[in-house]
Amino acid sequence: MINRRRLVDTFMTLAGIDSVSRRERGVVDHLAVRLGDLGLEYTEDGAGNVINGTAGNIVARLPGTVPGPTLLFCTHMDTVEPGNGVKPRVEGHAIRSGGDTILGADDKAGMAAVLEAVTVLKEQGLPHPKLELVFTVSEEIGLLGIKEIDFGRLESVMGFVLDSDGTPGKVITRAPSQDRIVATVVGRAAHAGINPEDGVNAIQAAARAIADLPLGRIDEETTANIGVIRGGQATNIIPERVHLEGETRSLDNNKRRSLTEHICRMMTERVEAAGAQIKIEVEQIYSSFALEPDTRPVRMALKAAANVGLVAAIEQTGGGSDANVLNEHGIPTVNISTGMRKVHSTEEYLLIEDLVNTTRHVLEIIRLAGLNKE
């Protein structure tokens, strides 16, 4: 039986520990104590050194008590900004921050649910197959942590990432790929009042390039955005250099590639027509995934949700998660909802009942795996 008070306390404790991306050491240290108390074997890898962070990923293992497929449960430990000094508080049936920070339910609701589920298994001696628990760093800034996992050491045949918003019971089976586009527009500096005709305004050239780009929702599967622009030094200087950052996403890899190529070509043409130059770098951040409804983790997640009285539903998302990388490495993985709402904002909140239901969902997935039925 789930201990609601303990579950809420676990979440509140996790939420109160600073862990913005690349600065997760406090949560890792807390987690190490919690896993040790549960008697779980765990390791911390060297991801922190690779990504210039303070901590690595944690992989913990719970030996099985019955035959069955090894299951992987994955959550991430980092949060977005403003994520320092979070003061979680219970307001009625919900948990909120003080209003000047995020809450961090993304993804500490998932962490709390997994920890409570394992605690219940241990306390009550419930039968279960072998479990692998993966807690990653720096998910929010490009899935950096999961990319450093030693996949050769994982035994899981399927995975469940707990990192989706909305009411528990939702099962994400499709997610997009993403390209990051970084461009530098180079013009020519000159005095804006004495000899402006000798200059080439990099801001103006960049503006012309951006103005004609296909941005926003391109179709039901594809989006594009320019989200960062920096340039200029002073009003009396024709700006010489502008930095741009953008992205493309699509559930269809071919669409993403074509859109990225189109955007790069348009930017180059517009900038050069304005007399400036442009350097563009493109990096694929992660690949898309699409699981069919009869895939084992999909069936298991849906059946488990229905068994505990949740509305089970297959959905797709426009965001990436650790599930993208797990699928890319051959571990069929779905992303299940945890109840977090208004994530990445100071209005973020979590209903206590959703936190409980997420834990019930996890426990039922484990039970079904132990029965080898889904």
Give the CATH architecture of the largest domain.
Answer: 3-Layer(aba) Sandwich
Largest pleated sheet: 9 strands, mixed
Report the CATH C-level class of the largest domain. Alpha Beta
| CATH fold field value of the largest domain | Aminopeptidase
- The overall number of domains is 2
Distance between the termini: 22 Å
H/E element string? HHEHEEEEHEEEEHEEEHEEHEHEEEH
* Helicity range: 25-40%
Shape: elongated
Kindly state the number of beta strands: 18
Give the overall average pLDDT: 98
Determine the structural class based on helices, strands and strand pairing.
Answer: alpha+beta
**Residue windows where pLDDT falls under 50 for at least 5 positions:** none
The number of helices is: 9
- CATH level-four homologous superfamily name of the largest domain: Zn peptidases
Bin the strand percentage.
25-35%
Please compute the radius of gyration using only Cα atoms: 23 Å
Can you lay out the helices and strands and say which pair or pack?
Elements: H1 4-15, H2 25-37, E1 41-44, H3 47-51, E2 58-62, E3 71-76, E4 89-91, E5 94-96, H4 105-124, E6 131-136, E7 158-164, E8 170-175, E9 177-186, H5 202-211, E10 216-219, E11 222-231, E12 241-250, H6 253-273, E13 277-286, E14 289-290, H7 296-307, E15 313-316, H8 322-328, E16 333-337, E17 340-341, E18 349-351, H9 352-371
Parallel strand pairs: 3-6, 3-7, 7-16, 8-15
Antiparallel strand pairs: 1-2, 2-6, 4-5, 5-18, 8-14, 8-16, 9-12, 9-13, 10-11, 11-12, 17-18
Helix pairs in contact: 1-4, 4-9, 5-6, 7-9
Give an overview of the whole structure.
- The protein is α+β, with helices and mostly antiparallel strands and 374 residues long.
- The protein has 2 domains: 4-175 and 288-371, Zn peptidases (Aminopeptidase, 3-Layer(aba) Sandwich), CATH 3.40.630.10; 177-286, Alpha-Beta Plaits (2-Layer Sandwich).
- It is built from 9 helices and 18 strands.
- The protein has helices at residues 4-15, 25-37, 47-51, 105-124, 202-211, 253-273, 296-307, 322-328, 352-371; strands at residues 41-44, 58-62, 71-76, 89-91, 94-96, 131-136, 158-164, 170-175, 177-186, 216-219, 222-231, 241-250, 277-286, 289-290, 313-316, 333-337, 340-341, 349-351.
- Strands 1, 2, 3, 6, 7, 8, 14, 15 and 16 form a 9-stranded mixed beta sheet that branches. A 5-stranded antiparallel beta sheet has the order 10-11-12-9-13. A 4-stranded antiparallel beta sheet has the order 4-5-18-17.
- Strand 17 and strand 18 (349-351) form a beta hairpin.
- Helix 5 packs across helix 6.
